[in-house]
Structures are given as structure tokens and as C-alpha cells.
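pinging the channel bc i need a second pair of eyes. not urgent but kinda urgent?? the chain im working w is below, pasted from the shared doc
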Amino acid sequence: MSTQIQRRSIFLVLISVFLLWAPVESIRFDLESGHTKCISEDIKSNSMTVGKYQIVNPNDGHPLPDSHKVTVRVTSAYGNSYHYSDHVTEGHFAFQAVEAGDYMACFFAADSKPSTSITIDFDWKSGVAAKDWTNVAKKGSVELMELELKKMFDTVQSIHDEMYYLRGREDEMQQLNRSTNAKMFWFGFLSILVCLSVAGLQLWHLKSFFEKKKLI
């Protein structure tokens, strides 16, 4: 059991390193008028997150049509709102997550006649990726090596926090399993007791019936 847990921990560390060092790129998606599209991001508590969005102009060199505007709302897993913009063509948000869980960024395009398709560029970063390392280097006037070391330190710190978070989740799952097993044991015991009671009542009823009919 301990060997499996160690293997799982090593595997999770490798995945975390890959995700943290993988280049973060913006995504582009289409949104039909009168529809809503939501994008989720799993964010840990006390992590910094930043995002920016912009509608792509379908006609370069010309102003955006009036129909190319969206309403954007960012909410936590518990429904708390962290960002809201109505009828905009671009915007950004930045906040420190107080609650851990899946945060949702929802884009809504008002209904229009005829129906139009809006293309949106969206960039959402969290944790280490949310830090502007260029500004850090300029403000601190640090050398390139020092900057890389700071990146590595923050990455290791994020992995350390992630491991503690996963360990806590594993303890919660073990407690849930123990509680479920105990409930299933008592449920099975009560089920057997009820079955035996019903069988006893049936035998007593049949015996009484046969005695009344003088069959026994």
C-alpha cells in the first residue's frame, strides 16, 4: 500500500512539474449570439490568478460591429463573483483566490438578428504562471541566473503546497471510505436481521395456519 502511494506521489510530482513549466498560451473560441460559454480553472486557495480577454475583429482596419460585445463574469466554486463586465469588447481581471476549487469564467453574447459568431481570445493564468517575471527582473535589477533561481524556487514551493493539498485530500478520502464501510456493515447487519425477523414471522404464521386447519 505504501509503495503504491509513493509511486502515485512521484507521478503527481512529475505531472505538476510538467504543468508548471509548460508554456501558457491563450485560447481562442467562437461564441454564437444568444449563447453562453464557460471555461473552468482549478485554483488553489491563496493563489494569484490573472486573465485577459479580447474580441477578435473580423474585419481588420474597420471598427468592431455593435453586435460584437460580450458580458463576462468570473465566479468561484461557491458562486462568489470576482469579476463582472457588461457589454464590453475587451477586459482583464486579477485577484487572489480565497476559496479553493473550480473557478468559472462565463462569456455571454446578446441575441442579435441575424445571428453572429464572435471570436474571443482568452488568456488565463494561475499560480506561478500568473507572475510577470519580466517586471520582477526590471524592478529588482536581478541577473538572469537569479531570476531563473527564483522561478525554480516558486515552482518547487507550488509543488510542495500541491503535495500537502493532495495529502489532505487523500486523508479525506480515506476517512470517507472508512465511514462508508462502517455504514455498509451496519446496513448489511440490519438487513440480515430484518430478513430473519420476516422469515420467523412467516414460519409462525404458517404454523398457526396449519394448526387451525388441524393439518399438524
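so DSSP finds three helices and eight strands in the chain. and Residues 1-7, 9-24 have pLDDT under 50 and may be disordered. — does that match what u expected or am i reading it wrong
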